Amino acid sequence: MEAEEERGWGPEAGTRPKMLPRSQLRLSPGEEQEGRETRLRVVLRVRPLTCTETRRGDRHAVHSLGNGTVHVSAARHDATFTFSAVFDAGASQEAVFEGSGMQQLVELAVEGFSCTVFAYGQTGSGKTYTLMGPLGQSDAPELLGLMQRSFSCLLEQSRGTGLTLSASYLEIYNEQVRDLLSAGPPRALPLRWSKTRGFYVENQLSVDFESLEAVIELLLQGSQRRRTSAHALNGHSSRSHAILTIRIHSRAPGTSKQGTLCFVDLAGSERVKDTGSSGELSVEANNINRSLLALGHCISLLAKPRGKRTHIPYRDSKLTRLLARSLGGSGVTLMVACVSPSSRCLSETLSTLHYASRARRVTTRPMANRVPREKLLQTLEEEIQALQLENLSLRQQLSLPRSREVPGAWPGWVGRYSLGGLHCPPLEGQLPVEGAPAWPSLYGLLRDFVVENEKLRQPQLPPGPSSGDIPTIPSHSQAPHRSIHIPLSQPSWPQHPNMMPTSVHRLPKLPPASSCPQCCTNAIASQGSASLPLPAQDDGTVPSCWLQKGKRSQGRSWSSLRQHAVPRDSQEAAGTEGRVIPSAPPWPGPPEPSAAGAIPVLQWEEASEWLEELI
Ligand SMILES: Nc1ncnc2c1ncn2[C@@H]1O[C@H](COP(=O)(O)OP(=O)(O)OP(=O)(O)O)[C@@H](O)[C@H]1O
């Protein structure tokens, strides 16, 4: 745990929820990290002395002690700092890429997380060099920076996986947000806020790309448009904060993710008397320093424990607004602090080191950006797969033949539903509806599995007939009606084929059926017979209170769904001997073909919204 925290991106102490071992859940690193308080990862890079500094006879004041520790020594200043990694003057660009965790950041972005790497430090400390290398030197691939190496890594991952990539590039110059990719002279773009998107730049140009050459060309073009000037400490000093964002849209069967990989090259903090800036340069310097101060202020507040945090003033600058999500929200962030080793830059170096140390205490709660409807479909598929495994296991335990070995022994759902794809073929007599989601079919399949598995679980049941069909529940059975709360957000058990559930104890707990609170004393209509937990009235209809859409509450269980849709075939099941008890709630949408005459209570949109709420 400690080691994990030391590396950064480790969960905060005490925030790790109880989980099954990873081997059972088969979680990806991103899934493991999702929703947990996660520290910013901070690494330090010390550049070599420049020719001017060497000529001047500046001394080395910053020494790496190894193990992520750095020591600063000069006359009255002596201090030691620890980071996730420290790269000294001899470290190559490749070593920085490998040791900073950049590759992991790319992987998380592909998984749908908002990932940010930002370079912070005094002017001339090597931020641009670390991120982009010396731009335009294509003959020296070893000098390529974190950005180009990440692009390459990303494109490698995108090969054959259907990732869609696009890039946007902007700068914040004198508190104006400007597009670096759109044609014509840079003009200010509005920065807006919305509840769903947070802060965003309106009308920003986004360019799709498919190759490394294309994205590097975009980087070059944009960087050439960025404001730079010469001053005493840097002949090519960036006068703006630059933000290059790569959007990664990945589509796989049943899921769709939208991750971002954001590179922030901050303008360097500077002392006007050191840089000799005047006129426009000093106006720029003031704006740069002011926005960095706002960033520092936000970081100081964010570094406090969550309970003690006060309001975070993101709105104090455009920079902090755009970094809000990366710093305090749901992103994963890497900070590369850059310093000069020169004894002359000591006070600025110490300031950067304190700043970076504070940033190490900042935490976020990473959340992947998934398209909810598709997430639901994915979850349904996972549940079905888990139930299918259980079904096989139960059949084995009851010495029932595997259905596949007995022709015609598959339960009714086989053939009606296909697990392979989300978009099942239309059923007989049913017209295909363009763009119609496969939820009813998946839901129906889920329900059928639940029903069959529940029946197979009944301990008093004799082994089934030789046909391998599901044994029926005897009419005298006192088995209570139960509704299953299916934990959609977590797989019920391992989904690896080699990890079949070995005992029924791992099945979801079955709570007692709930009754209609308004008018029915007992929803379980017929004692001793297989029936739905539905209060059928004399005329065969269902009390209106069951059909009314009640006020939606958070955390509703599957059983509450039952109140919203009642297939008529389910009602008919009440009181029918030997019928399977459908303990899964009926699908709240339009009727399935098998549920002839179902009562459609909710509109499709409502039903889908509702399911989204559930997960
Ligand atoms: N690790 C390094 N190895 C060799 N040269 C470096 C290294 N880091 C920086 N330099 C050189 O130092 C100079 C300043 O670097 P750079 O422009 O990247 O600084 P910066 O922090 O981005 O400055 P500013 O904030 O003013 O834009 C450049 O000439 C660059 O080539």
Automatic annotation (TrEMBL):
Any single Pfam family the record assigns to this protein: Kinesin
Principal location class: cytoplasm
Subcellular location field: Cytoplasm, Cytoskeleton
Positions of the UniProt region annotated as Disordered: 1-36, 546-598
Annotated Gene Ontology cellular component terms: microtubule; microtubule associated complex
Biased composition (Pro residues): 583-593
Keyword line: ATP-binding, Cytoplasm, Cytoskeleton, Microtubule, Motor protein, Nucleotide-binding
The Kinesin motor domain, residue ranges: 39-362
Residues bound to ATP: G121, Q122, T123, G124, S125, G126, K127, T128
PANTHER family linked: CHROMOSOME-ASSOCIATED KINESIN KIF4A-RELATED (PTHR47969), KINESIN-LIKE PROTEIN (PTHR47969:SF33)
Family designation: Belongs to the TRAFAC class myosin-kinesin ATPase superfamily. Kinesin family.
Protein name listed in UniProt: Kinesin-like protein
